[in-house]
Each structure stands twice: as structure tokens, then as C-alpha cells.
Structure prediction request, 142 residues.
Amino acid sequence: MTEGAPAAFATAEDVIGRWRPFRNDTEKDRAIVRLGDASSLLRTLVPDIDARIQHEPELARTVTSTVVDAVVRFLQNPNGAKQLQETIGNRSYGMTFDGKPTGVFFTEGELAALRPGAGRSTSKLPALGTAFVSARPGWAPW
Prediction:
């Protein structure tokens, strides 16, 4: 981690607890670097995340889990391969890439869960996809 940079949201121990022990020190070192990368990226994509954790301590666990998930995705597939093909007889090996940059990333679902208002609705209107059945056609309680 760069000196003076904010602390990562997760540790190597968090990765071990949510995934598996590291195979060697190289894998552990790579994970530690990527934990810092993922934390920095998350701070860029959700700028108020540190302040929100201060006011919503339960959010810290979700942030830790999300950062670990991003790092585990990277560790499982560091080359960003989309498809892997192997043949044993007369040996063959193939790998397909989707052309996207490799590294840590967050899914849209993960980011949506971490942005303000996730999981909470302040609206009195029903959520999208909610059906309302009334005895009077055209009548609704809102």
C-alpha cells in the first residue's frame, strides 16, 4: 500500500476467512496489493463510503465482503480469461479473452448495494414490480 493512502477495507485474513488459505507468500502478497487497489477503486466509485461507514457501522461488513469478492475474482482468474479449453490426448490448450481490462472490478449489483439508499425506500409508492389489486377499478391508496 502506498504510504499515506487510506487503509484497505479488507485484510489478507478476511480473504482467508471468506475463501481459502493462500497457496504461498506470492499469492498472499498479490492479494494484499489488490485489496488496496480494490479499496481505492471503491472510494472512487462510491466517494462517500468512508463517511457512511462512520454513520452506519453495519455497512463495514458489507464493504469488506465486497472488496474480498472483487479480489477473489481476480485471484481466481488473473488473466481475465473468458473461456479455457484443455485436451489431454496429443495435448492442446486454449484460452479466450473478452478484451476487457483485467484487474479488480465490482459488479453493478455490488455497487448498487453500497450506494446511498441501497435496500431502503423512503417512497410511499410501491416498488417497481409491486402489484396492487383493488375492488374499485382505477383506485389505488396513493
The chain is about 40% helix and 10% strand. The mean pLDDT is 83. Residues 46 and 111 are 8 Å apart (CA to CA). The longest helix spans residues 25-45.
